[in-house]
Amino acid sequence: MTNVIKTCDVLIAGTGVAGVYSALNLNKNLKIILITKENLRDCNSYLAQGGISTVLNDDDIIPYIEDTIKAGNYKNNKKSVEILVKESKDNIKRLIDLHVPFDKNEDGSLSYTREGGHSTFRIAHVKDETGKYIMESLYKELETRTNIEVIEKCRLIDIIKKDKLCLGGICSFKDDTLEIHAKSTILATGGLGGLFTSTTNFPSLTGDGISIALKNNVAIQDINYLQLHPTVLYEKNSNGKRLLLSESLRGEGGIIRNLKGEEFVDSLKPRDIVSKAILKEISKTPDTPYVYLDLTHLDKNFLMKRFPFIYSECLSRGYIMDTDMLPISPAHHYAMGGIKVNINGETNLTNLYALGETACTGVHGNNRLASNSLLEGVVFAYRCAKKINEELYSHTVNYPTKEELIDFLKERVDENYAKLLNC
Ligand SMILES: Cc1cc2nc3c(=O)[nH]c(=O)nc-3n(C[C@H](O)[C@H](O)[C@H](O)COP(=O)(O)OP(=O)(O)OC[C@H]3O[C@@H](n4cnc5c(N)ncnc54)[C@H](O)[C@@H]3O)c2cc1C
């Protein structure tokens, strides 16, 4: 085993939406190393189905803030929520500029869907694979950036900490220990679904960022705020990663029913309420530990066109969405808490930042409103990148360049002396 040392301006751990979007918004003159534990695409961002929420217009600012805070049971950080909502539109525009092919109406405007807890249709989406399409657009842009080096199968195992400063990270890479020295380090290592036996998450996401933070006394917040997703396909003997049935299926008319076919809960309530009602219902029938998601009243062509991924995944498991009721039960889905950060992603350790699901901006309270996670990822990643750009700019290039200094002198020294200047 050898110890290899690399240096860069910014080290980012995680190639999900938070890690990659922050990398793309850092100055192009910064040297960035982007590492990921597994392959580039092995992240929850890639799995996102329903969409990314956005404020519709100025009249929607207050309703959207209220929906987020109501879903979060009033435990949210209000300032973070205001930022999330007010900066949503600009970031959706940035994603469109990066060629994310959001679904559109015939007149060219964005097509919005609705999910539980939203008082209106305000969720931008690409069919039922929004995360895949967003990430493919970001990865494509990544390929054009010569200042960003991507290292796959490179696991961050610790940060380098000295005198209350973070100076980079230590990684295990192949058989080597890779020490990456960086002026700024971003933890964008995602959630901790891999710790649960029943989850919608990638099993490789095991809360590494949180473990590293704990080891180094970096502050953690609300780690007990975990979210069950109510509509996950029930399969006998299925453990680990299970198939999510997007909340937008309910937004487009799907209804939750018990084994007798009765509608026992308002399907469009926030996730915690719906999950609780389902668990209560399931407890009455221990031999059949599921209820149903009913889409049979919806048009087959609509379902196949709007939800092609889920339709074919269900079909491969023997369920036809427009004729069969789908057995469902809740599973672990999301961590609202994490590494405590401020509105620019800064932790309480200088030069260490945290973004996305591993961070806690307080935006979700104790129950995340649907489709607010991808949005949190981009809004706070953009702010963090801006902050780092300012910080590193002031440290490295906040003085005249050699050429500017020569021009400055040329105007001030006599003609003969000017000839000696190296230009
Ligand atoms: C099935 C599913 C559907 C979802 N649908 C939606 C939706 O429609 N809308 C929405 O807003 N949200 C949705 N979510 C939630 C959302 O996708 C995630 O919360 C969000 O994408 C997290 O982004 P992230 O960048 O923080 O983490 P991730 O995208 O999970 O990325 C984490 C990255 O960190 C890397 N990593 C982890 N540990 C290490 C380590 N030690 N060293 C190096 N790299 C490491 C991983 O390999 C990965 O690249 C969904 C989640 C799931 C699971």
From TrEMBL:
Question: Where does the chain cross the membrane?
Answer: none
The catalytic activity of this protein is classed by the Enzyme Commission as 1.4.3.16
Family according to the record: Belongs to the FAD-dependent oxidoreductase 2 family. NadB subfamily.
NCBIfam families, A to Z: PRK06175.1 (NF004820)
Which InterPro entries does the record cross-reference, listed alphabetically?
FAD-dep_OxRdtase_2_FAD-bd, FAD/NAD-bd_sf, NadB, Succ_DH/fumarate_Rdtase_cat_sf
Please identify the protein, giving its name as recorded: L-aspartate oxidase
Which reaction does this enzyme catalyse, per its entry? Answer: L-aspartate + O2 = iminosuccinate + H2O2
Q: Quick check: keyword Nucleotide-binding in the entry?
A: no
Q: Does the keyword Oxidoreductase apply?
A: yes
Task: Indicate the segments forming the FAD-dependent oxidoreductase 2 FAD-binding domain, all copies.
Answer: 9-374
Q: Which UniProt keywords apply?
A: FAD, Flavoprotein, Oxidoreductase, Pyridine nucleotide biosynthesis
Molecular function as annotated in GO: L-aspartate oxidase activity
Q: Hey, which pathway is this one from?
A: Cofactor biosynthesis; NAD(+) biosynthesis; iminoaspartate from L-aspartate (oxidase route): step 1/1
Q: Which cofactor is essential here?
A: FAD
Q: Which organism is it from?
A: Clostridium cibarium
